[in-house]
Structure formats: structure tokens, C-alpha cells
Amino acid sequence: MAYELYYWDGIQGRGEFVRLALEDALADYVDVSRQSGRGMGTGAMLELMRSKNEPHIPFAPPFLKDGELIVSHVANILFYLGPKLALAPDDEKLRYVANGLQLTITDLVAEVHDTHHPIATSLYYEDQKEAAKARSQAFIVERIPKFLGYFEQVLQQNQRGLSHIVGDTLSYVDLSLFQVIEGLRYAFPKAMNAYAANYPGLTGLHDAVAKRPNIAAYLRSERRLAFNEEGIFRHYPELDLAP
Question: Is the pTM of this model over 0.85?
Fold first, then answer.
């Protein structure tokens, strides 16, 4: 039975972190909101979230349906999928390390979102541009080095080698870090260009993931939507700066 991935249509967003894992593993899955027909589309996703019969309704997408089981939140979904897709360490203890790293990525993604929506998600970006500019400056100067510096250090100190962030084989965390670097380069090209030399390990990891056959095929496909100004990573030139 195919996995069912539920997320908003038209954007990569948080759903892309799950999608990369499914694509790398060539897993059988359905991107529900992007499909038409009975039981498909955004309407089907919203109907499931509002269901009076489903005992464990999710708060928000993304969420994954595997048979009768519904798993919500990116890190939780990847923690569930990792062993099934051979994208988690064999060592059970290291699986918790991987989960901790993924949760840190969740924190980073939330801060990225707040660069363009620092006051309220209910307001348009245009309604909070001045606050967004201040928030973005702080994010670029303080938070990008904080997060990327941490991941670079973890990568450099991995006793199993520098090819992966945890363990000695590819994990979903490596795929997620690829997406983080891709997203930050899109949203803040000036900043990321200035920081490029500071994180050689992450750059190498990003490039290695991009060359993986299944990922490379996915990136060339129509399934990989382009970044846009409706998703998490948005490029507003006025928010970008070289630190």
C-alpha cells in the first residue's frame, strides 16, 4: 500500500523534507493534494483534518498516512519512516541522535518562516515589511552562523566519517540539510555567498546529496516544485544582505 503524503499544493514548504526521503528511497507514495479525483486534492486533506470519525486528527500538514496510521510533524514522520526506508542509523541510540538533529532543523525552519512573517501569519508580508527587515538582519547575522556552525561542528566530529551528519550511511537528516542549504541559498543568496567558505563540510554534504541518482532525477522532474514566495523559504531582495 502506498504512503499518502498530505501537504499544501503549489509549494515545497515543510512537506519537502518528507518528500526528499520518499524520493531518495523510491518509495511508493501519493502526494494527495497534488492529485485529482475522488479522495484526492486539498479538499480531501482538509476533510481528514476536520474528521469527526478519525481519533487522531493532525493539527496541520504535513502528515503521512500509512494504512490506518496517521503520523504528523516532519521530524516525527521522518523518525517513523527512517528505518522503513533505510534512511536511519542501524544503531537504535543513533536514531535518537538523528531525531535530535532533525528537531533542530525544525527550529531553524521556524526561524526562517519568521523572517518574512515576524508579527503574525494572518498578516501579509507587505503588512509587516519593516519588522521583517529587522528580523531578517538578526537572523542573517546571528542565527544562520549559530545553526550552520552547529551542524558543521557535528559533521566534523562524526566519528564514523565526514560524509554524513550521523552514522556512516545516508540518513534523512542529510537529505534535510541539503534542503536547508538549498532554501537558504534561495532566500538569502548574498548572505549565503558570504558564509560559503565557513561551512565546507555542509557544502560537501549538500553537493553529494544532489548527485545521488534518485535525488538528481527528482530535482529534474516536475514533482520538484520551484521555490516561490508562498513557501517557507522566500526571496525578498530587501531582506537579504551580506553580513
Answer: yes
Torsion region of 221: left, alpha or beta (phi above 0 gives left; psi -120 to 50 gives alpha): beta
Copy the grid coordinates of residue 239.
Answer: 531582506
- Residue 13, phi-psi category: left (phi > 0), alpha (psi -120 to 50), beta (remainder): left
Long-range contacts of 40-48 (CB under 8 A, 24+ apart): 41/9, 42/8, 42/9, 45/6, 45/7, 48/6
Angle of helix 129-138 relative to helix 92-116, nearest 10 degrees, comes to: 140
C-alpha cell at 154: 557535528
Domains annotated on the chain, with CATH:
92-212 (1.20.1050.10)
- What's the pLDDT tens digit per position in 130-166? 999 999 999 999 999 999 999 999 999 998 888 999 9
Rounded Cα gap, residues 45 and 41, in angstroms: 7
* φ, ψ of residue 179 in degrees (nearest 5): -65, -35
CA-to-CA dists, residue 132 to 113, 128, 169, 180, 205, angstroms: 10, 6, 39, 20, 30
